[in-house]
Design goal:
Layout lengths: L1 H12 L9 E3 L31 E5 L2 E4 L10 E2 L2 H9 L24 H10 L5 E2 L2 H6 L6 H8 L11 E3 L4 H14 L2 E5 L19 E5 L6 E5 L4 E5 L4 H9 L3 E2 L12 H7 L6 H4 L2 H4 E8 L2 E3 L27 E8 L1 E2 L3 E9 L2 H13 L6 E5 L1 H9 L6 H17 L8 E9 L1 H17 L3 E2 L2 H13 L1 H8 L3 E11 L3 H18 L7 E9 L3 E11 L6 H18 L18 H4 L2 H14 L12 H4 L7 H5 L2 H5 L1
Helix pairs in contact: 1-13, 2-12, 3-6, 11-14, 17-18
Protein backbone atom coordinates (compact mmCIF):
# COMPACT_ATOMS: atom_id res chain seq x y z
CA UNK A 1 0.00 0.00 0.00
CA UNK A 2 2.78 2.41 0.92
CA UNK A 3 4.53 1.72 -2.37
CA UNK A 4 1.30 2.49 -4.23
CA UNK A 5 0.92 5.81 -2.38
CA UNK A 6 4.54 6.66 -3.15
CA UNK A 7 4.07 5.90 -6.83
CA UNK A 8 0.88 7.96 -7.03
CA UNK A 9 2.45 10.85 -5.11
CA UNK A 10 5.56 10.88 -7.25
CA UNK A 11 3.52 10.73 -10.43
CA UNK A 12 1.22 13.53 -9.28
CA UNK A 13 4.00 15.98 -8.47
CA UNK A 14 6.48 14.93 -11.13
CA UNK A 15 4.00 14.57 -13.98
CA UNK A 16 5.84 17.41 -15.69
CA UNK A 17 5.63 21.02 -16.50
CA UNK A 18 3.29 22.72 -18.99
CA UNK A 19 0.89 19.80 -19.43
CA UNK A 20 -2.46 20.13 -21.18
CA UNK A 21 -4.43 23.00 -19.75
CA UNK A 22 -1.30 24.82 -18.73
CA UNK A 23 -0.87 26.58 -22.03
CA UNK A 24 -2.95 28.84 -24.19
CA UNK A 25 -2.76 29.33 -27.95
CA UNK A 26 -3.54 32.88 -29.01
CA UNK A 27 -5.22 33.77 -32.28
CA UNK A 28 -4.70 37.01 -34.19
CA UNK A 29 -8.08 38.69 -33.97
CA UNK A 30 -9.54 41.66 -32.09
CA UNK A 31 -9.30 41.08 -28.37
CA UNK A 32 -7.17 38.03 -29.02
CA UNK A 33 -5.27 37.98 -25.75
CA UNK A 34 -8.03 36.49 -23.61
CA UNK A 35 -5.57 34.86 -21.22
CA UNK A 36 -5.01 38.01 -19.18
CA UNK A 37 -4.77 37.76 -15.40
CA UNK A 38 -6.86 40.90 -14.96
CA UNK A 39 -10.09 42.22 -16.43
CA UNK A 40 -9.30 44.65 -19.28
CA UNK A 41 -12.63 46.46 -18.77
CA UNK A 42 -12.53 49.99 -17.30
CA UNK A 43 -13.84 50.71 -13.82
CA UNK A 44 -14.18 53.32 -11.11
CA UNK A 45 -10.98 53.74 -9.13
CA UNK A 46 -10.77 54.28 -5.41
CA UNK A 47 -10.14 57.90 -4.50
CA UNK A 48 -7.10 57.08 -2.39
CA UNK A 49 -6.69 53.31 -2.05
CA UNK A 50 -5.27 50.93 -4.64
CA UNK A 51 -7.36 49.71 -7.52
CA UNK A 52 -11.06 49.58 -8.32
CA UNK A 53 -14.08 50.22 -6.11
CA UNK A 54 -15.65 46.85 -6.95
CA UNK A 55 -12.64 44.95 -5.55
CA UNK A 56 -11.41 44.60 -1.98
CA UNK A 57 -10.51 42.02 0.66
CA UNK A 58 -13.20 41.51 3.26
CA UNK A 59 -14.05 39.18 6.13
CA UNK A 60 -16.85 36.75 5.27
CA UNK A 61 -16.65 35.00 8.64
CA UNK A 62 -14.55 35.14 11.81
CA UNK A 63 -11.71 33.21 10.11
CA UNK A 64 -12.49 33.69 6.43
CA UNK A 65 -11.71 36.36 3.87
CA UNK A 66 -12.53 36.76 0.20
CA UNK A 67 -11.85 39.15 -2.67
CA UNK A 68 -14.99 40.85 -3.94
CA UNK A 69 -15.93 41.52 -7.53
CA UNK A 70 -14.95 39.54 -10.61
CA UNK A 71 -11.91 41.37 -12.01
CA UNK A 72 -9.36 38.75 -10.99
CA UNK A 73 -9.27 34.94 -11.06
CA UNK A 74 -9.04 34.87 -7.25
CA UNK A 75 -12.15 37.02 -6.81
CA UNK A 76 -15.30 35.51 -5.35
CA UNK A 77 -13.62 32.61 -3.53
CA UNK A 78 -13.28 32.11 0.20
CA UNK A 79 -9.65 31.94 1.30
CA UNK A 80 -9.59 29.82 4.47
CA UNK A 81 -5.78 29.80 4.82
CA UNK A 82 -5.20 33.54 4.67
CA UNK A 83 -6.05 34.61 8.23
CA UNK A 84 -4.06 31.75 9.83
CA UNK A 85 -1.13 32.66 7.59
CA UNK A 86 -1.15 36.32 8.64
CA UNK A 87 -1.44 35.37 12.32
CA UNK A 88 1.47 32.97 12.05
CA UNK A 89 3.63 35.53 10.27
CA UNK A 90 3.02 38.53 12.55
CA UNK A 91 2.49 36.57 15.80
CA UNK A 92 -0.79 38.33 16.60
CA UNK A 93 -4.48 37.49 16.47
CA UNK A 94 -6.46 38.88 13.51
CA UNK A 95 -10.20 39.43 14.02
CA UNK A 96 -12.96 41.27 12.13
CA UNK A 97 -13.56 43.52 15.14
CA UNK A 98 -10.10 45.01 14.71
CA UNK A 99 -10.96 46.49 11.33
CA UNK A 100 -11.11 50.29 11.24
CA UNK A 101 -13.04 52.27 8.67
CA UNK A 102 -11.38 55.15 6.82
CA UNK A 103 -11.77 58.57 8.44
CA UNK A 104 -13.03 61.26 6.04
CA UNK A 105 -10.29 63.77 5.34
CA UNK A 106 -10.68 67.26 6.79
CA UNK A 107 -11.22 70.25 4.49
CA UNK A 108 -8.11 71.35 2.62
CA UNK A 109 -6.55 74.76 3.02
CA UNK A 110 -7.69 77.41 0.57
CA UNK A 111 -5.80 76.98 -2.69
CA UNK A 112 -3.09 79.41 -3.71
CA UNK A 113 -4.19 81.28 -6.84
CA UNK A 114 -2.13 83.07 -9.42
CA UNK A 115 -4.69 85.25 -11.19
CA UNK A 116 -2.53 86.16 -14.17
CA UNK A 117 -1.78 82.47 -14.76
CA UNK A 118 -5.46 81.54 -14.43
CA UNK A 119 -6.45 84.21 -16.94
CA UNK A 120 -4.04 82.78 -19.51
CA UNK A 121 -5.09 79.22 -18.70
CA UNK A 122 -8.72 80.08 -19.46
CA UNK A 123 -7.68 80.96 -23.02
CA UNK A 124 -6.52 77.40 -23.70
CA UNK A 125 -8.65 75.14 -21.49
CA UNK A 126 -12.36 74.56 -21.02
CA UNK A 127 -13.81 74.84 -17.48
CA UNK A 128 -14.38 71.06 -17.36
CA UNK A 129 -10.63 70.57 -17.87
CA UNK A 130 -9.83 72.20 -14.53
CA UNK A 131 -10.70 71.17 -10.99
CA UNK A 132 -10.12 73.03 -7.73
CA UNK A 133 -12.39 71.00 -5.42
CA UNK A 134 -10.92 69.28 -2.37
CA UNK A 135 -11.24 65.68 -3.56
CA UNK A 136 -9.36 65.97 -6.88
CA UNK A 137 -6.77 68.18 -5.20
CA UNK A 138 -6.14 65.59 -2.48
CA UNK A 139 -6.12 62.65 -4.92
CA UNK A 140 -3.43 64.38 -6.98
CA UNK A 141 -1.28 65.20 -3.94
CA UNK A 142 -0.22 61.63 -3.17
CA UNK A 143 0.72 58.34 -4.77
CA UNK A 144 0.47 54.83 -3.30
CA UNK A 145 3.27 54.98 -0.72
CA UNK A 146 1.72 52.75 1.89
CA UNK A 147 2.64 54.31 5.23
CA UNK A 148 3.65 57.88 4.38
CA UNK A 149 0.55 58.40 2.24
CA UNK A 150 -2.24 55.81 2.33
CA UNK A 151 -2.00 54.76 6.01
CA UNK A 152 -2.17 58.42 7.05
CA UNK A 153 -4.92 59.46 4.67
CA UNK A 154 -7.34 56.68 5.67
CA UNK A 155 -6.86 57.85 9.25
CA UNK A 156 -7.79 61.40 8.38
CA UNK A 157 -4.33 62.95 8.13
CA UNK A 158 -3.80 64.92 4.95
CA UNK A 159 -0.48 66.11 3.47
CA UNK A 160 0.93 69.36 4.81
CA UNK A 161 0.80 70.85 1.31
CA UNK A 162 -1.57 69.91 -1.49
CA UNK A 163 -1.90 70.96 -5.11
CA UNK A 164 -4.01 74.05 -5.75
CA UNK A 165 -5.48 73.06 -9.10
CA UNK A 166 -5.78 69.99 -11.33
CA UNK A 167 -5.63 70.44 -15.11
CA UNK A 168 -6.54 67.76 -17.66
CA UNK A 169 -4.92 68.46 -21.07
CA UNK A 170 -6.31 66.80 -24.19
CA UNK A 171 -3.30 67.10 -26.48
CA UNK A 172 0.32 68.14 -26.77
CA UNK A 173 -0.53 71.70 -27.82
CA UNK A 174 -2.37 72.26 -24.56
CA UNK A 175 0.59 70.87 -22.61
CA UNK A 176 2.95 73.28 -24.35
CA UNK A 177 0.63 76.22 -23.62
CA UNK A 178 0.37 75.15 -19.97
CA UNK A 179 4.15 74.90 -19.51
CA UNK A 180 4.75 78.24 -21.19
CA UNK A 181 2.15 79.95 -19.02
CA UNK A 182 3.53 78.42 -15.83
CA UNK A 183 7.03 79.56 -16.75
CA UNK A 184 5.86 83.12 -17.46
CA UNK A 185 3.84 83.42 -14.23
CA UNK A 186 6.07 81.49 -11.81
CA UNK A 187 3.71 78.56 -11.20
CA UNK A 188 4.77 75.03 -10.17
CA UNK A 189 3.75 72.03 -12.29
CA UNK A 190 3.70 68.40 -11.11
CA UNK A 191 2.90 65.76 -13.78
CA UNK A 192 0.41 63.06 -12.76
CA UNK A 193 0.04 59.76 -14.62
CA UNK A 194 -1.63 56.84 -12.89
CA UNK A 195 -0.81 57.89 -9.33
CA UNK A 196 0.69 54.47 -8.57
CA UNK A 197 4.19 55.51 -7.50
CA UNK A 198 5.52 54.26 -4.16
CA UNK A 199 8.35 56.77 -3.87
CA UNK A 200 6.59 59.88 -2.59
CA UNK A 201 7.08 61.50 -6.00
CA UNK A 202 3.71 63.30 -5.97
CA UNK A 203 4.13 64.88 -2.54
CA UNK A 204 4.21 68.65 -2.75
CA UNK A 205 7.17 70.48 -1.16
CA UNK A 206 5.88 71.71 2.20
CA UNK A 207 7.48 75.14 1.94
CA UNK A 208 6.41 75.92 -1.63
CA UNK A 209 4.64 79.35 -1.59
CA UNK A 210 3.82 79.39 -5.31
CA UNK A 211 0.66 78.01 -6.88
CA UNK A 212 1.03 74.26 -7.53
CA UNK A 213 -0.80 72.70 -10.47
CA UNK A 214 -1.15 68.96 -11.06
CA UNK A 215 -1.21 67.99 -14.75
CA UNK A 216 -3.33 64.85 -15.05
CA UNK A 217 -2.30 63.24 -18.33
CA UNK A 218 -4.86 60.44 -18.52
CA UNK A 219 -7.04 62.09 -21.15
CA UNK A 220 -4.09 61.78 -23.53
CA UNK A 221 -4.65 58.06 -23.95
CA UNK A 222 -4.57 57.27 -27.66
CA UNK A 223 -2.39 55.34 -30.05
CA UNK A 224 -1.74 58.08 -32.60
CA UNK A 225 -0.02 56.01 -35.27
CA UNK A 226 0.62 52.32 -35.87
CA UNK A 227 3.49 51.50 -38.23
CA UNK A 228 3.38 47.78 -38.93
CA UNK A 229 6.22 47.85 -41.42
CA UNK A 230 8.65 49.29 -38.86
CA UNK A 231 7.05 47.60 -35.84
CA UNK A 232 6.35 50.70 -33.79
CA UNK A 233 3.47 52.80 -32.50
CA UNK A 234 3.31 56.48 -31.60
CA UNK A 235 1.43 56.68 -28.31
CA UNK A 236 0.26 59.49 -26.04
CA UNK A 237 1.97 59.33 -22.66
CA UNK A 238 -1.18 59.36 -20.52
CA UNK A 239 -2.33 55.94 -21.73
CA UNK A 240 -2.45 53.25 -19.06
CA UNK A 241 -0.85 49.89 -19.66
CA UNK A 242 -4.25 48.26 -19.79
CA UNK A 243 -5.50 50.70 -22.42
CA UNK A 244 -2.33 50.30 -24.46
CA UNK A 245 -2.49 46.51 -24.47
CA UNK A 246 -6.20 46.57 -25.29
CA UNK A 247 -5.68 48.87 -28.29
CA UNK A 248 -2.62 46.96 -29.51
CA UNK A 249 -4.28 43.61 -28.82
CA UNK A 250 -7.14 44.50 -31.15
CA UNK A 251 -4.49 44.63 -33.89
CA UNK A 252 -2.84 41.38 -32.82
CA UNK A 253 0.09 43.25 -31.20
CA UNK A 254 1.66 43.86 -27.80
CA UNK A 255 4.29 46.13 -26.28
CA UNK A 256 5.29 43.37 -23.88
CA UNK A 257 5.60 45.81 -20.95
CA UNK A 258 3.57 44.21 -18.15
CA UNK A 259 4.32 45.76 -14.73
CA UNK A 260 2.31 44.74 -11.67
CA UNK A 261 0.54 48.11 -11.98
CA UNK A 262 -0.39 47.69 -15.66
CA UNK A 263 -4.06 48.40 -15.02
CA UNK A 264 -3.38 51.85 -13.57
CA UNK A 265 0.13 53.12 -14.41
CA UNK A 266 0.87 55.08 -17.57
CA UNK A 267 3.42 55.11 -20.36
CA UNK A 268 4.74 58.49 -19.24
CA UNK A 269 5.14 57.23 -15.70
CA UNK A 270 7.05 54.17 -16.90
CA UNK A 271 9.51 56.36 -18.79
CA UNK A 272 9.87 58.86 -15.95
CA UNK A 273 10.82 56.13 -13.45
CA UNK A 274 12.81 53.71 -15.65
CA UNK A 275 10.18 51.03 -15.16
CA UNK A 276 10.51 47.29 -15.63
CA UNK A 277 7.81 44.72 -16.34
CA UNK A 278 7.26 41.09 -15.47
CA UNK A 279 8.07 39.98 -19.03
CA UNK A 280 11.32 41.91 -19.21
CA UNK A 281 13.29 38.81 -20.26
CA UNK A 282 11.53 38.61 -23.61
CA UNK A 283 10.54 42.20 -24.35
CA UNK A 284 13.06 44.29 -22.40
CA UNK A 285 12.78 47.07 -19.85
CA UNK A 286 11.07 50.33 -20.74
CA UNK A 287 14.29 51.84 -22.15
CA UNK A 288 14.44 48.88 -24.57
CA UNK A 289 10.80 49.22 -25.62
CA UNK A 290 10.61 53.01 -26.06
CA UNK A 291 12.55 54.20 -29.12
CA UNK A 292 11.95 57.91 -28.55
CA UNK A 293 10.04 60.17 -26.18
CA UNK A 294 9.00 63.82 -26.34
CA UNK A 295 9.70 65.89 -23.22
CA UNK A 296 8.06 69.33 -23.05
CA UNK A 297 10.17 71.68 -20.90
CA UNK A 298 10.10 75.44 -20.21
CA UNK A 299 12.89 75.77 -22.80
CA UNK A 300 11.00 73.83 -25.48
CA UNK A 301 10.66 70.22 -26.59
CA UNK A 302 13.49 67.74 -26.06
CA UNK A 303 13.48 64.98 -28.68
CA UNK A 304 15.55 63.42 -31.45
CA UNK A 305 14.62 62.89 -35.10
CA UNK A 306 14.23 60.89 -37.23
CA UNK A 307 13.22 57.63 -35.54
CA UNK A 308 15.78 54.89 -36.17
CA UNK A 309 16.48 51.52 -34.55
CA UNK A 310 19.79 52.92 -33.28
CA UNK A 311 22.04 55.87 -33.97
CA UNK A 312 25.46 57.18 -32.95
CA UNK A 313 25.10 60.94 -32.75
CA UNK A 314 26.62 61.90 -29.43
CA UNK A 315 24.83 62.27 -26.13
CA UNK A 316 21.20 61.33 -26.68
CA UNK A 317 19.09 64.29 -25.58
CA UNK A 318 15.88 62.27 -25.80
CA UNK A 319 17.14 60.03 -23.02
CA UNK A 320 16.65 62.89 -20.54
CA UNK A 321 13.00 61.86 -20.22
CA UNK A 322 14.03 58.53 -18.69
CA UNK A 323 14.30 58.77 -14.91
CA UNK A 324 13.30 62.44 -14.89
CA UNK A 325 10.50 61.77 -12.36
CA UNK A 326 8.58 64.91 -13.33
CA UNK A 327 11.46 67.27 -12.55
CA UNK A 328 12.48 68.39 -16.06
CA UNK A 329 9.22 68.56 -17.97
CA UNK A 330 6.18 66.62 -19.10
CA UNK A 331 6.42 63.52 -21.30
CA UNK A 332 3.68 63.85 -23.91
CA UNK A 333 4.20 60.97 -26.34
CA UNK A 334 6.58 58.17 -27.19
CA UNK A 335 7.45 55.80 -30.00
CA UNK A 336 6.96 52.28 -28.67
CA UNK A 337 8.27 49.08 -30.24
CA UNK A 338 5.49 46.54 -30.83
CA UNK A 339 5.48 42.83 -31.58
CA UNK A 340 2.88 40.30 -32.67
CA UNK A 341 1.01 38.60 -29.88
CA UNK A 342 2.70 35.28 -29.12
CA UNK A 343 1.22 32.23 -30.75
CA UNK A 344 1.48 30.24 -27.53
CA UNK A 345 1.65 31.15 -23.86
CA UNK A 346 2.54 28.51 -21.28
CA UNK A 347 2.87 28.58 -17.50
CA UNK A 348 5.01 26.48 -15.18
CA UNK A 349 6.29 26.22 -11.65
CA UNK A 350 9.21 24.54 -9.88
CA UNK A 351 9.89 23.71 -6.26
CA UNK A 352 13.37 23.76 -4.75
CA UNK A 353 14.61 22.62 -1.33
CA UNK A 354 15.98 26.07 -0.47
CA UNK A 355 16.53 29.57 -1.83
CA UNK A 356 20.16 28.90 -2.81
CA UNK A 357 19.06 26.04 -5.06
CA UNK A 358 16.51 28.29 -6.69
CA UNK A 359 19.16 30.94 -7.33
CA UNK A 360 21.37 28.35 -9.01
CA UNK A 361 18.43 27.46 -11.25
CA UNK A 362 17.91 31.11 -12.24
CA UNK A 363 21.57 31.58 -12.98
CA UNK A 364 21.69 28.42 -15.08
CA UNK A 365 18.63 29.64 -17.01
CA UNK A 366 20.29 33.01 -17.63
CA UNK A 367 23.54 31.44 -18.79
CA UNK A 368 21.73 29.03 -21.11
CA UNK A 369 20.70 31.94 -23.33
CA UNK A 370 17.08 30.85 -23.08
CA UNK A 371 14.65 33.69 -22.31
CA UNK A 372 11.26 32.78 -20.86
CA UNK A 373 9.05 35.87 -20.77
CA UNK A 374 8.96 35.74 -16.97
CA UNK A 375 10.97 33.69 -14.50
CA UNK A 376 10.60 34.54 -10.81
CA UNK A 377 11.79 32.94 -7.58
CA UNK A 378 9.98 33.46 -4.26
CA UNK A 379 11.42 32.84 -0.82
CA UNK A 380 9.71 30.50 1.64
CA UNK A 381 7.54 33.22 3.20
CA UNK A 382 6.19 34.40 -0.14
CA UNK A 383 5.74 30.80 -1.28
CA UNK A 384 3.48 30.22 1.71
CA UNK A 385 1.59 33.43 0.97
CA UNK A 386 0.75 32.02 -2.44
CA UNK A 387 -0.58 28.91 -0.73
CA UNK A 388 -2.62 31.08 1.65
CA UNK A 389 -4.32 32.75 -1.32
CA UNK A 390 -5.72 29.51 -2.74
CA UNK A 391 -9.48 28.87 -2.48
CA UNK A 392 -11.00 25.99 -0.56
CA UNK A 393 -10.15 22.88 -2.61
CA UNK A 394 -12.59 20.36 -4.04
CA UNK A 395 -12.27 16.75 -2.89
CA UNK A 396 -10.27 15.88 -5.97
CA UNK A 397 -7.99 18.88 -5.51
CA UNK A 398 -7.52 18.03 -1.83
CA UNK A 399 -6.51 14.46 -2.71
CA UNK A 400 -4.03 15.61 -5.35
CA UNK A 401 -2.59 18.17 -2.91
CA UNK A 402 -2.16 15.46 -0.26
CA UNK A 403 -0.35 13.22 -2.72
CA UNK A 404 1.98 16.06 -3.71
CA UNK A 405 2.75 16.86 -0.07
CA UNK A 406 3.40 13.22 0.67
CA UNK A 407 5.93 12.95 -2.14
CA UNK A 408 7.51 16.28 -1.31
CA UNK A 409 7.91 15.85 2.44
CA UNK A 410 7.93 12.09 3.00
CA UNK A 411 9.87 10.92 -0.02
CA UNK A 412 12.01 13.86 -1.12
CA UNK A 413 12.39 15.12 2.48
CA UNK A 414 11.88 18.79 1.64
CA UNK A 415 11.56 21.08 4.67
CA UNK A 416 8.29 23.05 4.61
CA UNK A 417 10.00 26.02 6.27
CA UNK A 418 12.83 26.20 3.72
CA UNK A 419 11.43 25.19 0.34
CA UNK A 420 10.90 27.85 -2.30
CA UNK A 421 9.15 28.09 -5.65
CA UNK A 422 9.85 29.54 -9.09
CA UNK A 423 7.16 30.46 -11.59
CA UNK A 424 7.58 30.76 -15.33
CA UNK A 425 5.70 32.25 -18.25
CA UNK A 426 6.88 31.22 -21.72
CA UNK A 427 5.67 32.92 -24.88
CA UNK A 428 6.49 32.49 -28.53
CA UNK A 429 6.13 30.04 -31.39
CA UNK A 430 5.25 26.41 -30.60
CA UNK A 431 8.83 25.30 -31.38
CA UNK A 432 10.37 28.05 -29.28
CA UNK A 433 8.10 27.33 -26.33
CA UNK A 434 8.74 23.60 -26.55
CA UNK A 435 12.50 24.11 -26.53
CA UNK A 436 12.32 26.40 -23.49
CA UNK A 437 10.09 23.93 -21.64
CA UNK A 438 12.68 21.20 -22.11
CA UNK A 439 15.54 23.43 -21.01
CA UNK A 440 13.74 24.57 -17.84
CA UNK A 441 12.91 20.97 -16.87
CA UNK A 442 16.52 19.91 -17.32
CA UNK A 443 17.95 22.87 -15.40
CA UNK A 444 15.52 22.39 -12.51
CA UNK A 445 16.45 18.72 -12.16
CA UNK A 446 20.16 19.57 -12.24
CA UNK A 447 19.87 21.58 -8.98
CA UNK A 448 17.49 19.22 -7.18
CA UNK A 449 14.26 20.94 -8.21
CA UNK A 450 10.86 19.45 -8.99
CA UNK A 451 8.08 20.49 -11.32
CA UNK A 452 5.15 22.03 -9.47
CA UNK A 453 2.92 21.94 -12.53
CA UNK A 454 1.50 24.49 -14.91
CA UNK A 455 -1.40 25.51 -12.70
CA UNK A 456 0.96 26.60 -9.95
CA UNK A 457 2.70 28.93 -12.38
CA UNK A 458 -0.59 30.32 -13.63
CA UNK A 459 -1.84 30.98 -10.08
CA UNK A 460 1.40 32.67 -9.12
CA UNK A 461 1.16 35.01 -12.07
CA UNK A 462 -2.54 35.73 -11.52
CA UNK A 463 -2.08 36.48 -7.83
CA UNK A 464 0.27 39.34 -8.69
CA UNK A 465 -2.61 41.57 -9.75
CA UNK A 466 -4.84 40.87 -6.77
CA UNK A 467 -2.16 40.96 -4.10
CA UNK A 468 -1.92 44.77 -4.04
CA UNK A 469 -5.34 44.92 -2.40
CA UNK A 470 -3.97 43.02 0.61
CA UNK A 471 -2.03 46.07 1.74
CA UNK A 472 -5.15 48.19 2.21
CA UNK A 473 -6.92 45.34 3.99
CA UNK A 474 -4.04 44.91 6.45
CA UNK A 475 -3.71 48.68 6.89
CA UNK A 476 -7.24 48.67 8.31
CA UNK A 477 -6.05 46.05 10.80
CA UNK A 478 -3.19 48.28 11.92
CA UNK A 479 -0.49 46.33 10.07
CA UNK A 480 1.89 48.63 8.23
CA UNK A 481 3.54 47.27 5.12
CA UNK A 482 5.45 48.38 2.06
CA UNK A 483 7.55 47.04 -0.79
CA UNK A 484 11.06 48.06 -1.76
CA UNK A 485 13.34 46.69 -4.45
CA UNK A 486 16.97 46.68 -5.39
CA UNK A 487 19.24 45.19 -8.02
CA UNK A 488 22.33 43.27 -6.95
CA UNK A 489 25.15 41.28 -8.59
CA UNK A 490 24.79 37.52 -8.41
CA UNK A 491 27.38 37.24 -5.65
CA UNK A 492 25.50 39.74 -3.43
CA UNK A 493 22.10 38.03 -3.39
CA UNK A 494 22.77 36.03 -0.23
CA UNK A 495 24.55 38.86 1.67
CA UNK A 496 21.75 41.35 0.91
CA UNK A 497 18.82 39.06 1.75
CA UNK A 498 20.51 37.68 4.87
CA UNK A 499 21.45 41.14 6.16
CA UNK A 500 17.90 42.46 5.74
CA UNK A 501 16.40 39.33 7.33
CA UNK A 502 18.74 39.66 10.30
CA UNK A 503 18.39 43.42 10.76
CA UNK A 504 14.58 43.66 10.65
CA UNK A 505 13.77 41.65 13.83
CA UNK A 506 16.48 43.49 15.75
CA UNK A 507 15.06 46.85 14.69
CA UNK A 508 11.55 45.81 15.66
CA UNK A 509 12.71 44.70 19.10
CA UNK A 510 14.55 47.98 19.58
CA UNK A 511 11.37 49.92 18.73
CA UNK A 512 9.08 47.75 20.92
CA UNK A 513 7.01 46.43 18.01
CA UNK A 514 4.39 43.88 19.09
CA UNK A 515 4.47 40.43 17.55
CA UNK A 516 6.85 39.54 14.73
CA UNK A 517 7.83 41.47 11.61
CA UNK A 518 6.91 40.14 8.19
CA UNK A 519 9.54 39.83 5.48
CA UNK A 520 9.18 38.16 2.13
CA UNK A 521 11.19 38.60 -1.03
CA UNK A 522 11.41 37.35 -4.56
CA UNK A 523 13.79 37.59 -7.46
CA UNK A 524 11.60 39.14 -10.12
CA UNK A 525 14.04 39.86 -12.96
CA UNK A 526 17.36 38.32 -13.99
CA UNK A 527 20.29 39.75 -15.95
CA UNK A 528 23.72 38.47 -16.99
CA UNK A 529 25.28 40.50 -14.14
CA UNK A 530 22.68 39.98 -11.42
CA UNK A 531 19.04 40.19 -10.38
CA UNK A 532 16.28 42.37 -9.01
CA UNK A 533 15.23 41.51 -5.45
CA UNK A 534 11.74 42.67 -4.50
CA UNK A 535 11.10 42.88 -0.74
CA UNK A 536 7.80 43.11 1.13
CA UNK A 537 8.12 44.21 4.75
CA UNK A 538 5.53 44.84 7.45
CA UNK A 539 4.74 44.81 11.15
CA UNK A 540 1.94 45.71 13.53
CA UNK A 541 1.52 49.29 14.65
CA UNK A 542 -0.45 48.28 17.74
CA UNK A 543 0.72 49.98 20.90
CA UNK A 544 3.15 52.30 19.10
CA UNK A 545 2.89 56.01 19.91
CA UNK A 546 4.12 56.99 16.46
CA UNK A 547 3.63 54.01 14.14
CA UNK A 548 4.37 55.93 10.91
CA UNK A 549 7.60 57.41 12.27
CA UNK A 550 8.66 54.03 13.63
CA UNK A 551 8.08 52.49 10.23
CA UNK A 552 10.09 55.22 8.50
CA UNK A 553 13.07 54.74 10.79
CA UNK A 554 13.07 50.97 10.33
CA UNK A 555 12.63 51.14 6.57
CA UNK A 556 15.33 53.81 6.28
CA UNK A 557 17.79 51.59 8.12
CA UNK A 558 16.95 48.61 5.88
CA UNK A 559 17.70 50.69 2.80
CA UNK A 560 21.04 51.56 4.37
CA UNK A 561 21.71 47.86 4.93
CA UNK A 562 20.97 47.10 1.27
CA UNK A 563 23.40 49.79 0.10
CA UNK A 564 26.06 48.63 2.58
CA UNK A 565 25.81 45.11 1.15
CA UNK A 566 26.18 46.20 -2.46
CA UNK A 567 22.59 46.66 -3.59
CA UNK A 568 21.34 49.51 -5.76
CA UNK A 569 19.14 52.36 -4.59
CA UNK A 570 16.29 51.22 -6.84
CA UNK A 571 15.59 48.84 -9.69
CA UNK A 572 12.27 50.08 -11.11
CA UNK A 573 10.36 52.16 -8.56
CA UNK A 574 12.52 55.23 -9.01
CA UNK A 575 13.83 57.47 -6.24
CA UNK A 576 11.21 60.14 -5.66
CA UNK A 577 11.57 61.63 -2.20
CA UNK A 578 11.59 58.48 -0.07
CA UNK A 579 15.06 57.45 -1.34
CA UNK A 580 16.48 60.91 -1.93
CA UNK A 581 18.63 60.95 1.24
CA UNK A 582 20.73 58.16 -0.26
CA UNK A 583 21.65 60.01 -3.47
CA UNK A 584 25.19 60.94 -2.27
CA UNK A 585 25.95 57.23 -1.87
CA UNK A 586 24.91 56.44 -5.42
CA UNK A 587 26.25 59.40 -7.43
CA UNK A 588 29.57 61.22 -7.44
CA UNK A 589 29.57 65.00 -6.85
CA UNK A 590 30.44 65.59 -10.51
CA UNK A 591 27.53 63.43 -11.66
CA UNK A 592 25.17 65.33 -9.38
CA UNK A 593 26.43 68.68 -10.63
CA UNK A 594 26.03 67.55 -14.25
CA UNK A 595 22.39 66.67 -13.65
CA UNK A 596 21.95 69.98 -11.86
CA UNK A 597 23.29 71.81 -14.90
CA UNK A 598 20.73 70.07 -17.11
CA UNK A 599 17.99 71.10 -14.69
CA UNK A 600 19.08 74.72 -14.67
CA UNK A 601 19.27 74.78 -18.47
CA UNK A 602 15.88 73.22 -19.22
CA UNK A 603 13.98 74.61 -16.23
CA UNK A 604 15.77 77.76 -15.00
CA UNK A 605 12.75 79.00 -13.03
CA UNK A 606 12.19 75.62 -11.35
CA UNK A 607 8.67 75.23 -12.71
CA UNK A 608 8.89 71.46 -12.23
CA UNK A 609 9.63 71.71 -8.52
CA UNK A 610 8.35 68.40 -7.16
CA UNK A 611 11.85 67.88 -5.75
CA UNK A 612 12.32 64.26 -6.78
CA UNK A 613 15.55 62.33 -7.10
CA UNK A 614 18.74 64.35 -7.61
CA UNK A 615 16.67 67.28 -8.85
CA UNK A 616 15.24 68.02 -5.41
CA UNK A 617 18.75 68.44 -4.09
CA UNK A 618 20.44 70.45 -6.82
CA UNK A 619 17.60 72.96 -6.91
CA UNK A 620 18.72 74.33 -3.53
CA UNK A 621 22.25 73.09 -2.99
CA UNK A 622 25.59 72.79 -4.71
CA UNK A 623 26.93 69.29 -5.14
CA UNK A 624 29.49 69.63 -2.34
CA UNK A 625 26.75 70.69 0.09
CA UNK A 626 24.37 67.94 -0.94
CA UNK A 627 24.89 65.69 2.05
CA UNK A 628 23.78 68.42 4.46
CA UNK A 629 20.86 69.32 2.22
CA UNK A 630 19.35 65.83 2.14
CA UNK A 631 20.31 64.13 5.38
CA UNK A 632 17.26 65.53 7.18
CA UNK A 633 14.75 64.24 4.63
CA UNK A 634 13.46 61.46 6.87
CA UNK A 635 12.83 63.88 9.72
CA UNK A 636 11.05 66.33 7.42
CA UNK A 637 8.73 63.61 6.12
CA UNK A 638 7.80 62.77 9.69
Amino acid sequence: MNSLIMALAKGTLAMGLFKRGGGHRLAYKPGADDDRSYDPAPGNRYAHLWGYEDTHFEFCGPRLVRITGSRYPLAGYELPRFVPYVEQMVGLTIEPEQMTEPVPPPPLAEPVRNEAFMAELNEHFQPQQMAAEDQPRLIHSHGQLSVDEIYRIIRGTIPKRTVDLVVYPHDEQQVVALVEAANRHDVVLIPYGGGTNVSGALQCPCDEPRMIVSIDMQRMDRVLELNRENNWAVVQAGITGKQLERQLGAEGLTSGHIPDSIELSTLGGWIATYASGMKKNRYGNIEDIVLEAVLVTPRGQVRSTPINPRSSMGVRAGALAFGSEGSLGIITRAVVAVRPLPEVRRYGSFIFPDFASGVRFLRAAQESGMRPASLRLTNNTEFRLGHALTPRPTRRQALLAWLKRYYLFNIRRFDIERLVAATAVIEGSPAEVRQQEQTLRRLARSVGGLSGGAEGGRRGYQATFAIAYIRDFLNKLGILGETFETSVPWDRIEPVTSAVAQELPELCRAHAVEGRPYLSYRISQIYPAGVCIYFTMGFSGRGLDEPEQTYQRIEHRLREVILEQGGSLSHHHGVGKIRRPFIPRSHSPSAIEAVGAVKRTLDPNNVFAAGNNIFGCVEVAKADDLGEAVKTDVGERS
